[in-house]
């Protein structure tokens, strides 16, 4: 088993086709198939199932694919560390940002990285917490922000302890106190998203307490939700820094209130099986600095 075979396996599994993988790798299809056949023969296992619809991994192939991703990442980290010893800090670094934080972090983070570490090529990916954790475990990202499980003892240092807020037109929130209970939300027309973890938690807790929300629609994009709320369609719930960001940008068309009892804790996650290079550590340092700076401005 060699590194090239592992890279070929990764490409085929991700492409779902030997033909597509050969194009991506710029390797002749017969040569690619032969290397995978040699790997299967060496292991004494079938790794791929070939059908008219394409190629999919067997259980053994899926296991090797997952481990191959980590191995390739470790080799890349070792190469980067070697270059760094010679004074060359750079290369691609995958950074995951939570969807609710991306609007006020992504551009500031990119600018700082280009200014302070021009040799690094940042690859910023936006997603929900579980998606980013999976991307780290699959070796598609190097570091990512994640929401720590509610009620569990944090396994990661808490970088940000952030309340949730409801955002809506000033007229809709007029007369409401600065801090609201969950029951107060039942009086508001709400835009929600069934895929957003914070909305899932709110709706599950409401059901447990015998409450029901006035859901007027579902919008995945917080930017779109803010625009619709500014036009008077209702209110939406988002973490406080994101709430402050959209309120500041609304020119007085939006206001906010804190929702008590639903603080979320944010930490930084990396795969413990992959050694972090100086480039990754540089990105981590700058990400934390930008996060703290923006949090001071918005919280």
Provide structural commentary.
With 299 residues, the chain is an alpha/beta fold. The protein folds into three domains: 76 residues, Orthogonal Bundle (Arc Repressor Mutant, subunit A), CATH 1.10.10.10; 101 residues, 3-Layer(aba) Sandwich (D-Maltodextrin-Binding Protein, domain 2), CATH 3.40.190.10; 102 residues, Periplasmic binding protein-like II (D-Maltodextrin-Binding Protein, domain 2, 3-Layer(aba) Sandwich), CATH 3.40.190. It contains twelve helices and eleven strands. The strands form three sheets. Strands 3, 4, 5, 6, 7, 10 and 11 form a seven-stranded mixed sheet that branches. A two-stranded antiparallel sheet has the order 1-2. The protein has a two-stranded parallel ribbon with strand order 8-9. Strand 8, helix 9 and strand 9 form a beta-alpha-beta unit. Helix 1 packs across helix 2. It starts with a helix and ends with a helix. The model has no long low-confidence stretch (mean pLDDT 88).
Class by helix and strand content?
alpha/beta
Cα(first) to Cα(last) distance is 52 Å
Which term fits the overall shape?
A: elongated
What number of domains? 3
Number of helices: 12
Low-confidence stretches: none
CATH fold name of the largest domain: D-Maltodextrin-Binding Protein, domain 2
Question: What is the correct CATH architecture of the largest domain?
Answer: 3-Layer(aba) Sandwich
Output the keywords.
299 residues; D-Maltodextrin-Binding Protein, domain 2; seven-stranded mixed sheet; two-stranded antiparallel sheet; DNA-binding transcription factor activity; transcription; DNA binding; LysR family transcriptional regulator; DNA-binding
């Amino acid at each position: 088993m060699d590194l090239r075979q592992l890279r070929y396996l990764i490409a085929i599994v991700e492409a779902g086709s030997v033909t597509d993988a050969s194009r991506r790798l710029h390797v002749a299809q017969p040569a690619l198939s032969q290397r995978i056949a040699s790997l299967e023969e060496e292991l004494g296992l079938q790794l791929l199932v070939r059908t008219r619809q394409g190629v999919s991994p067997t259980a053994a192939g899926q296991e090797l694919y997952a481990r191959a991703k980590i191995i390739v990442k470790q080799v890349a980290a070792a190469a980067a560390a070697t270059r760094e010893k010679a004074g060359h800090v750079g290369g691609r670094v995958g950074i995951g940002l939570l969807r609710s934080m991306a609007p006020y972090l992504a551009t500031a983070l990119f600018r700082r990285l280009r200014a302070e570490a021009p040799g690094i090529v940042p690859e910023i990916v936006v997603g929900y917490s579980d998606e980013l954790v999976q991307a780290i475990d699959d070796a598609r990202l190097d570091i990512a922000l994640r929401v720590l499980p509610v009620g569990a003892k944090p396994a990661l240092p808490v970088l940000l302890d952030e309340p949730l807020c409801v955002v809506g037109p000033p007229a809709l929130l007029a007369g409401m106190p600065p801090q609201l209970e969950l029951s107060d939300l039942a009086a508001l027309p709400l835009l929600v998203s069934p895929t957003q973890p914070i909305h899932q938690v709110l709706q599950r807790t409401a059901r447990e307490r015998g409450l029901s929300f006035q859901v007027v629609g579902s919008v995945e994009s917080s930017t779109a939700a803010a625009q619709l709320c500014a036009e008077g369609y209702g209110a939406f719930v988002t973490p406080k820094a994101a709430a402050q960001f959209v309120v500041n940008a609304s020119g007085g068309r939006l206001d906010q209130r804190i929702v008590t009892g639903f603080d979320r804790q944010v930490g930084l996650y990396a795969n413990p099986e992959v050694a972090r290079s100086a480039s990754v550590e540089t990105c981590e340092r700058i990400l934390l600095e930008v996060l703290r700076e923006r949090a001071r401005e918005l919280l």
